[in-house]
Amino acid sequence: MKTLIANLIYFLLPIAAIGQDNYDIANIPSALKSRAVATVRNDKTVVDVKSPEQVIETVTRAITVYNKNGDYYAALPIHYNKSNEIKSIKGAIYNEMGILQKKIASKDFKDLSAVDNSTMFADSRMKLYVPDYHSYPYTIEYQYEVKHKQNLIIPSWTPEVSNNVSIEKSSYQFITPIGTEFRIESKNYKGAIKEEKTDKTVSKIWSTEQIPAKKEESYSPNPNLKRTSVLIVPKNFVYYGKEGNFSDWKEYGDWFTTKLLSKKEDLTEASKQKFISLTKNASSDREKAKILYDYLQKNTRYISIQIGIGGLEPFPASEVDRLGYGDCKALVNYMRSMLSAVDIPSYYCMVEAGKRKENFHKTFANVQDGNHAILCVPFKNDTTWLECTSQNLPFGFLSNFTDDRDVIACTENGGVIMHTPKYSNSTNLQLRNADLTLADDGSIKGVLNTKFYGTQYENHMEILLANNNEKTKLLAEYYNIDNINFDQVKYAEHKQEKPFIEENLTIFIKNYAVKNGNKMLIQPNIFNTQSSISENKNRTEDIFIERGFIDIDSISITLPDNIVKNITPEQKIIEKPFGKYEFKSEIKGNKLLTYRKLELFEGNYPASNYEDFFQFHREVSSSDKGRYNLGIL
Amino acid sequence: MRHFLTLFLIFYFCPTIFGQNFDFGRISISDFSPTPLDSNADAIVLKEFGQSAVFVDDYDHRVKLMHEYHVLIRINNKEGFKKANFEIPSYKRGSYIRDHLDELKAVTYNLENGQINRTELENKKVFKENYSAYLDLNKFTLPNIKEGSIIEVSYRTLEQDLFNFKTWVFQDDIPKLKSQCIAIIPASFTYNVVLRGPYKLDDQKKGEVLKEYLFLDGIRMDCSKLTYTMSNIPAFIEEDFMTSPKNFKSAIYYELESIFYPSTGVKKTFSKTWKDVDTELMNEKTFGGQLKKTDLFKTTLSTLLSPNDSKLVKANKIYDYIKKQIKWNNYLGKYAESGIEKALEKRTGNIGDINLALVTALQAADLDAYPIILSTRRNGTPNSLFPVLSDFDYVIACVDIDGTKYKLDASNTYLPFGSLPLQCLNERGRIIYSKKSSDWFPLASEEISEQYYTLIGVLNDQGQLKGTLTISSQGNKALLKRQHIAKFNSLEEYWEKLDEEMPNVSLTNAKIEHLNEVDQVLNETFDITLDVNKQEGSTILSFAPNVIDRISYNPFKIQDRTYPVDMGFKSKLQYTIQLEIPEQYDVTDKPQNVSLALPESAARYKYMTQLNDNKLEVLGSLSFNKPIFTVDEYFSLKELYSRIIQQQKLDIRLTTKK
């Protein structure tokens, strides 16, 4: 009888909740409507840890959508896999006045695979609801409950979803039995944490409200740095049936190494012998590692297969050896096993990969950080990093996918936070020399030699790897010059210490100069012209330059005899805290020589500098397009 | 129809065996050496074989289709590695009707030290992904792939759907040395077979008769075996400004026409003549069935329309009503997905729901309205020899008002009465008049996509230009602009963005006219201020007169064109600039007047400057007077753009009077 009442209450509660909220659009403060495509009216997440293998996540979320662009945020995908179970889902749609239009039942959700196209296998599915309601504004409300059968990954709280979505109210409640230990990392949370106790449980409640939408600004710092978040990790956990505990990165690394990595270095004796003999003539460990990395690149490729517990565990080295492929974890483990075979120690590292630099939490050990694995080889005074999923990157070259960020390395002393190498302003160099000849019909031909260093290296990998047909097509897009023809295309990779890609082009541009009466108009700098950036009169965010670079273009144009070789020489230098620009041009003999150098310096600059930053680009852009009107004899 | 019968006759007199599958695992060292087709290929198909046969499954006695597929691919470089990844779909219809994949074999061959080493795909490395309620994906990748590896894959699939006689695509994104497909069809089945694309078959279609090949419907039945082979097929390379690659790729298409059941003597026909299709469509609940529901609109129309309305006014009102009433759910289709009644109630539906509702409502108002089924540009052009219903993926309404036929699509809020979106402009559709009659209907748009820029202003002696800029857009340009503006939360945000994107120009006092009156010209006006380039201490002022949306890049980049350039619409772009220049300046340099045209004025560019006292007038216009340009015209188009770019680089220079 007692349980029956409890059940009744349990079922009644959500219904009452629906009745309580009033989704009339008129109730939304106007500050929240400005620049917003949608407003989160109320987002209430309750995470109730009943036991390590029973974590109940209950979510009630209501979102008002103002126009078509907000539909994206009204869709609800709930991901699931072997470790969790969707217990209930339902929803409702309300019109502008907050009057119920229709109810959404569990059967209205589509059950789909959540495996992306490039993945061969992953244990990932979702229930998806995409509203087909098109009378704006409308409000959609969802209620769902998910049972997690593990407590290592606890649903975290990040109320702000996007700059163009405002938040009226969002809260997060975390309930645990009295006496269980958890570590909590809350970022940018300014409110008070409310605590509630019953005789059996403790709960903490975080809440935030009235966050307006923001304008999207270019060159902004990572928005996550300012956003509120709460991340919780238990002391003792159960994950896919495996028990464990860690309270810091050191212990995390120990757990990872012993439980997930230890049995994975299982190369056959024959394979080990092969690697020993491959490297027997190498003079140093570095040399050996290079040979093995080359072997890795020639004999394996990246295939995404997320097997093993919750996508954390690599598949064994012997399997990569046999099949010639693996995902990032498997390939890193394979490389590590090859190095072990020749007695070179290395560290399996986890990293948050992506063009946007994201750091691991420095002191807060958790498994939610990271989406990729790389390998660190700690040579004496020469820590080398290897990206094991690429068949092309030079030895020791990480690229802008994993550069300059905190990662966790699994070392003999447990987990250690390490920092990957940074590509400095001057490393990201693009060096171009052009030797061209202008004909009296206005066409120009000649040779263009460009070297791409640092992160500019990978910008050109796509062209480097493309077949000849495709190369010409890509080059035409890249240079985007009217009627440019590539008569000869040569690419070379120089994979030494400071690796670079060298591009050698023989070009012909039919309508290069514009003839107008007895004048010929030419623009000497055509291969690298800066475009201007958006103006922004009320800049709010800092200016953030994630990676600096230097571009140098030296262009020599031999002029035809019938041209008057007389121009006002130009020399321009603009120096700013965030960058420097130099432009020179003059005629020497029968040659028009142009030198252009643009530098942008990595860093954070106050928002008040934006006008200056904008003017800098504007001046560079206009100077880049500088033209000469040359007289024809 | 007659065409096809002749083919059958030929088969009876050709009893020799033609195509057959090649042996699995017979690889020679020479297969590893490059061929002339290899030069630009990341990978190449050395041999490809496919066979589709109607058969009776002994297990459940159902008639099914069996597809066999066998391919040999050489992977030349790392970019070609992706060809070693396979994804074979298995369709599911209901709980027991499922496609079935079996007999999968896959091997990688590597030439190492003069020896061919083979690595087989392991069974447990084939992953079945439950993609959705209707589809499973069988995914696998071959082991030990290196540059130069050859892979061999063969499998078969069993399918329940006899209509789905697989289209055989000869041409792919990598070249093929040889591709062969065979169809084995019982004598009692008739399929329509169509070959598309520019390449020729090695031999004309070859057929033979397989005597008493199949036990079907109580009797032993002959089958015909049709073999199609093509060799040395280059890779298909997609170009800009083209309709569906389907229209150009070499492929063989099948459509089931009829089945004859000897036991009962009944012949069940599917689609064969347009008359049959018309009847089928009109009897179909989700098509013709919807058109009967005129009662649904009786009450609405009585309030919506007034008796004095002309036919055109009535049609317009109904068009607007449907546009407002049913929002598009982003699904195509010639059939009504939820039915127009439900769509009206839910206020959302697919293309079929919306435009069949439109036809029905127009008919309810006693207007002459009919559905036109069509194939969208991405879907390819419909077969013109005989009806292939599955070619059509869209329906629009046609209303005839005193002899003028208006084509209507109510799925897009921004589309004016009588115009079609680009995706519908695909040669021709079929207008369905009744159960007994239908006809081809040209879809090419007569509409011109126009944009006019007018700048009237004053340039002062400080080098500041102040004026009023008007941008008028019509046709597709207006549609695109309205859609673009809709992406912003407010007009203010749109104007802010517009202003910010033009660093040298400041826009104020923005106004817009007819944003929601979609059948009218969309007019935008701005007060505009810009600083022109000053040299030598303001003694020289120079500026390009068309201050915004200048043409500075050539959309035609590649050297040679293989397929026609299809822009969808005729178009016109025009600049009119009237500037008062300061008294103390003279115009010392200005671009020469030009007039360029393609033969028969298919495209034309004009540029003219004129000075009257201190009034400078610039007139520029670019028009494309037809929507589709042939491959032969490509070079001229590219050159035209090149000349425009050159022209637009030129400045007008003013110098202080001496």
From TrEMBL, chain A:
Residues 278-386 form the Transglutaminase-like domain. Residues 56-213 form the DUF3857 domain. It comes from the Bacteria. SUPFAM superfamilies: Cysteine proteinases. InterPro entries: DUF3857, Papain-like_cys_pep_sf, Transglutaminase-like. This is DUF3857 domain-containing protein. The lineage of its organism: Bacteria, Pseudomonadati, Bacteroidota, Sphingobacteriia, Sphingobacteriales.
TrEMBL record, chain B:
Gene3D superfamilies: 2.60.120.1130, 2.60.40.3140, 3.10.620.30. It comes from the Bacteria. This is DUF3857 domain-containing protein. It comes from Sphingobacterium athyrii. The lineage of its organism: Bacteria, Pseudomonadati, Bacteroidota, Sphingobacteriia, Sphingobacteriales.
